[in-house]
Design brief:
Length: about 280
């Protein structure tokens, strides 16, 4: 199977799973948009440099709470980048990679009812990845920009090299994804829920199996209140998406998942939903 055919199949599957008929039902009673952009009112990043996110979340009541940002553990990092490197090798050899693994994350959200459903809960598969460390981010953006037109195998080698230096390059405190479809005219239930209640659960289908509890921060490139760091994260995730899948004509919304807790959901005895970050105090 050619790389072009493989990418067309994946793109087709994504569109089939994620897009339905757009009409007035794909919205909720709250409008989060101001013109072509939005302002996420349920996130307060003022203590981010202290390792804390303040978020307005829904539990027993809808209120502001502080969440301590944590780092992904060694076992998650080893699994994640081993699988990513393996998938790159498979694609280079024209072997269809497994849909299980670190790229396809199952994101569960709960918050607000969309008009086409009786439920406030939602589940969706999102393409997931890492963000370079803040002091490495501009450097990696320039690397990707300067090589984006290279041969695909050369680009895969560049990605594999970055994966081999994961601890040096990537930020352990977050994952990042793209909200590909939400606009003022059409809103996914994931988007609506995360804007209303940014607490999410993320599961990666694989063995070992990991679950992240995270706070979702949504970033629109036209928001004039963004910091330079936030702008750079949007630039990076859109660039890495085009680097792998080909150039896109628009810049998509970025969703940053700040890690709060990590669980081992593997079926063996040390797993079965045991929390590994933060470690239990005995």
């Amino acid at each position: 199977m050619s790389n072009k055919l493989f990418l067309r199949i994946i793109t087709g599957l994504i569109l089939i799973f994620a897009v339905g008929g757009a009409n007035e039902l794909e919205h909720a009673k709250i409008n989060f948009w101001k013109g072509n952009t939005f302002f996420q009112q349920t996130i307060d990043m003022s203590k981010y440099d202290q390792g804390i996110i303040k978020a307005k979340t829904y539990g027993k009541e809808y209120k502001w709470e502080e969440y301590k940002i944590k780092k992904l553990p060694d076992e998650f990092m080893k699994w994640n980048f081993n699988r990513r490197t393996e998938n790159l090798s498979n694609i280079k050899e024209k072997v269809f990679p497994s849909l299980a693994g670190p790229h396809n994350a199952i994101v569960a959200t709960q918050g607000i009812r969309r008009f086409d459903t009786q439920f406030v809960i939602n589940n969706a598969v999102k393409g997931m990845g890492f963000v370079p460390k803040k002091d490495k981010l501009r450097e990696i953006i320039k690397l990707l920009q300067s090589t984006i037109n290279n041969d695909k195998k050369e680009k895969f080698d560049i990605l594999a090299d970055l994966y081999s230096k994961a601890d040096e390059v990537f930020d352990r405190t977050k994952q990042i994804s793209l909200e590909l479809y939400s606009t003022p005219e059409f809103e996914t239930h994931s988007f609506l829920n995360q804007m209303f209640n940014p607490k999410v659960a993320i599961v990666f289908l694989d063995i070992p199996c990991f679950e992240l509890k995270a706070i979702a921060q949504l970033l629109h490139h036209e928001n004039p209140e963004l910091t330079q760091y936030e702008k750079d994260m949007i630039e990076y995730v859109n660039l890495i998406h085009s680097y792998f899948h080909g150039k896109f004509s628009k810049k998509f919304i970025a969703t940053v998942y700040h890690v709060i807790e990590v669980y081992n959901n593997s079926p063996e005895k040390k797993g079965r939903g045991i929390r590994i970050v933060p470690e239990k105090q005995h």
